[in-house]
Amino acid sequence: MFSRLNLLARHLSRPLPNYLHNAAGLTGAVPRASMAQEHGNKRMINTAACLIIGDEVLGGKTVDTNSAYLAKFCFALGIALQRVEVIADDEGEIIEAARRMSARYDFVVTSGGIGPTHDDITYQSIARGFGLPLVLHEGALERMRRLSKPRPGQEGFSWEVDSPARRAKMRMVELPYDTKLPDEDQVIFTAEDLWVPVNVVNGNIHILPGIPRLFERMLNGLKPRLLPRLTDPEGKGVHRVLFSTPMPESEVTGYLTELAAKVKDRGVNVGSYPRWGKSRNTVTLVGREKDFMESLVPEVEENVKGRRIQVEGEDDSEGSDKDT
């Protein structure tokens, strides 16, 4: 314990880097960092946004799958995912997007930019954007020391000896932190065997890693904390009914336009999706009133000359392309 405290004392005694200072010089006012306090970190969740951060995604080196996973996660819970953005590892870009999304959406998830290298700047950027300091989180550091294992080539690594590798590791637990708020509302550990925390800033920004297996597991670990804050507290979410039709879009558009107008007040959205190179296209109903949507099935099947399906493409056969 004594050595750990010494380590923390040495680290915290270092001069603060510039990005710890208030970002008053940036264009636009810093959003109130008291949003989380004002809402008690328990604001209801209706809408969501996703911010994918990484030059490697924009450069084509890595394919983003996390936004797709978040979309399915939100759909299952009845949360309306309304925006997905991919931006570079650029402080200004991160600050602008994080502020804007935090102000507009109830549940914001970021992915990427929290590793040990020089271009992992998500924590420092969001800290600056909301006028918060970066704080070495002792609980996260203790978990990292206990749970992380040396990577190949780091067999001689020691937590007790200052080194570039140790400093790089410690960057990953220097978190944007509001000392006026409870720790448990800002640093969330989603599994006993994971040291990486979900860092919550401004009450609604949830900072997650970009590694898909970690992103997915940590997102699922957040679910128990999200359920009480949903408009649908039982987490029943929304329902999707799929129809397969041999008709091209141009032939069903009249009926679907009439149907959309008829069911709009019941919160049901009607969709039509051409499937290039396939013999059948897809029509969908999406909404919360399951019984009402089920009552529409015979009518839709008759008017699109098709049938209800469970998975798109389950009745594919060879055929000519449909028009779009």
Automatic annotation (TrEMBL):
This is MoaB/Mog domain-containing protein. One of its GO terms (molecular function) is FAD diphosphatase activity. GO terms for biological process: flavin-containing compound metabolic process. CDD domains: cinA (cd00885). PANTHER family: MOLYBDOPTERIN BINDING DOMAIN PROTEIN (AFU_ORTHOLOGUE AFUA_5G11210). Residues 304-324 are annotated as: Disordered. It comes from Friedmanniomyces simplex. InterPro entries: FLAD1_M, MoaB/Mog-like_dom_sf, MoaB/Mog_dom. Residues 49-229 form the MoaB/Mog domain. Pfam families: FLAD1_M, MoCF_biosynth.
